[in-house]
Amino acid sequence: HPPASMPAGCFLDVARIAKDYFRENHILSNQGIEVPIAAVGKLGYPDLAEKALRDEACDMIMLGRPLLADPAWPKKAYAGRAAEILPCIGCQEGCLNEFVEGGHPQCAVNARTAFEEEFSEEIPEAPVKKKIAVVGAGPAGITAAEVLLARGHAVTLYEKADRAGGAVIPGSVPKIKYEFRNYLAYLQNTVEKMKENPRFRLHFGKEADAASLKKAGYDVIVTALGAEQNRPPIEGADRENVFFATDVLQNPALLDGAETVAVIGGGAVGTETAYFLAYEKGKKVTLVEMDKYIMNHACTANRGHLIHYLERAGAVLMNMTTLKKIGDGSITVEQNTHKNVPNPYVTWSPILPENVENPLDLLRPIKDRPVTREIPADAVILAVGNTPNDALFRECLAVHAADEVYNLGDSQKSGRILEAVRGAYRKARSI
C-alpha cells in the first residue's frame, strides 16, 4: 500500500500518548482535575472524531481547516447530516499557501470563507427571475447552479459526461487523494439535492451547442467547460504510447505492459500522477520538469510529502530539464547540469514567492550548462498544463445566444479549485 498523504487523524497517537502520560504520572491541572487533551490533525470526519473520543484517545476534538470549509460542521455532524458537510480537500492553497503568496487567506471550496463581511450567509433572492443554462458540471458549474437556484432562477445544467464532477473525477483516483474523493461525493450529492427543486433540470450525456441554447430561449448562459490538456509541439508527441495524465488516471490499463514511464510536467498533476504510478501501479517513473522546482507554488507540506516518497520509491526527478523528443522506448531531454541548479529532492530549502527577491540567488547564479540525455520510457504521460475550452462561450457570443453570456472556471482561465469556486460563486450571486 502507498503511504497515506497526511492521513486522517494523523496525530491521534500523539494525543493518546500525552493523555496516558499525564494520567500515569498523576499530572493534574491547576484546578486539581485531569488535564484535558485536545487532538488535532485532519479530524474533519465525524465518525473518526467520535471514535477518538469513545476510545479515549483524547478529550476534545480541535478543528481548523474543516471549519473554514464548512462552519456548520458541528451542527451537521450532530444532526447526522454528514453527507451535507462541505469537506476540506487538504489542498492548503486557500488557507496556508495564501500567506506565502501574499494573498487573502480563504478556502478553496468555500468562497464565502474570510469574506463574510462581503457576502451574507443567506443568498439574497434575485429581483428578476431568469431562465438560465449552465453548461458543465464541474466545481464551477455546480457552484454556479446551486447559487442561481438559491437566487430563485430556473436553471438547466448540461453535462456531456454521464456524471457530475468534471476534472475532480480523474483527480480523485489516486489513494492519496481521498479528500478529493470526498469532495467529488459532495458535488454529486449537491446535484442530487438540486434535482428536488422544481426549477432545476439536469441533462447528463448531452453536449450543448450555441444554436440549441439560443433556440431554447435562455436569458442567461453560463459556460464552465473546463480546459483541454496541452500536447507539446515536439517530435513523437502524437505516438500511440503518449497519454494525457487525466486519461491514465481514469484508465490505468492504458499502461499495461509498460515498465518504465516518463511523466512530463512536474506541477501538482504530474507529481501526483507520478506518485500514483510508482506506488499503486509499480512503475519505474521519471518525472521531467522545466522549472527550477518540482511543484513550484504548491503548498510546502503537500509538496514535501510527495517528493520525499517519490525519492523513497526510486523515482527519478529531473528539474530544469526540457523534453526534446519522444522516441521508440525512450525520450530525449536536455538537462541543465550547472552546479547551482537546485537539488530536486531537497524540500527543506525555502521557495519564496516570485515577488520576493532571495539575496542568496545573487551569489548562486544558475548558468546554462545543457546536457542531452536519453531516458528509457515505454510510455509517456503528459501533464504540461492546459488551455481554456472557451469555444462554446465564443460561439454563444457570436450568435447572441442569450442577452447575458458568462464564462467560468477553467474554461475562462486555467486554475485551481479555489479560483473556479470563487469565481462561480461571486458571478452567480450577481445574476
The total count of helices amounts to 15
Q: Total strand count, please? A: 17
Shape: globular
Record the strand order, biggest sheet. Answer: 5-4-3-6-17
Q: What do the pLDDT scores average to?
A: 93
N- to C-terminal distance: 48 Å
**Roughly what fraction of the amino acids lie in strands?**
15-25%
Low-confidence stretches: none
| Radius of gyration computed on alpha carbons | 24 Å
Structural class: alpha/beta
Q: What level of helicity do the residues show? A: 25-40%
Largest sheet: 5 strands, parallel
Question: Could you describe the 3D structure shown?
Answer:
By secondary structure, the chain is α/β, with parallel strands linked by helices. Helices cover 32% and strands 17% of the residues. Strands 5-4-3-6-17 form a 5-stranded parallel sheet, with helices on both faces. It has a 5-stranded parallel sheet with strand order 8-15-9-10-11. Strands 12-13-14 form a 3-stranded antiparallel sheet, with no helix packed on it. Strand 1, helix 2 (46-54) and strand 2 (60-61) form a beta-alpha-beta unit. Helix 9 (210-216) crosses helix 14 (391-398) and helix 11 packs parallel to helix 12 (300-312). It is globular, with a radius of gyration of 24 Å.
Summary?
The protein has 431 residues and is of the alpha/beta class. It has helices spanning 12-24, 46-54, 65-69, 73-78, 97-101, 139-150, 168-171, 178-194, 210-216, 245-250, 268-279, 300-312, 359-363, 391-398, 417-430, and strands at residues 38-39, 60-61, 131-135, 154-159, 200-204, 220-223, 227-229, 242-244, 260-264, 284-288, 316-318, 321-326, 330-336, 370-376, 379-382, 386-388, 404-407.
